[in-house]
């Protein structure tokens, strides 16, 4: 993983936001799949 700049550290806020967006997308897919399963 090449570093863009040795003095630039990845922002924890932006990284956390990326993880949150990924988690939300994943949760949305899981919920959509769960809604397709017929419940008794």
Give the overall average pLDDT: 77
Biggest sheet layout: none
C-alpha Rg (nearest Å):
17 Å
The number of E-state strands comes to 0
Q: Residue share in helices?
A: 55-70%
Q: Hey, roughly how much beta strand do the residues contain?
A: under 5%
User: Number of helical segments?
Assistant: 1
Helices and strands, in order, run as H
Could you say which overall geometry the principal axes of the C-alpha atoms support?
rod-shaped
Structural class: mainly alpha
Question: Key features?
Answer:
single chain; about 60% helix; about 0% strand
General description of the model:
The chain is mostly helical. The chain has 1 helix and no strands. The longest helix is centred in the middle third of the chain and has 25 residues, at 12-36. It is rod-shaped. It starts with 11 loop residues before the first helix and ends with a helix.
Short précis:
It is built from 1 helix and no strands.
List the helices and strands and how they pair.
Elements (H helix, E strand, L loop, with lengths): L11 H25 L4
């Amino acid at each position: 993983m090449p570093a863009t700049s040795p003095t630039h550290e990845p922002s924890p806020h932006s990284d956390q936001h990326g993880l949150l967006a990924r988690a939300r997308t994943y949760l949305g897919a899981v919920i959509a799949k769960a809604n397709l399963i017929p419940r008794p």
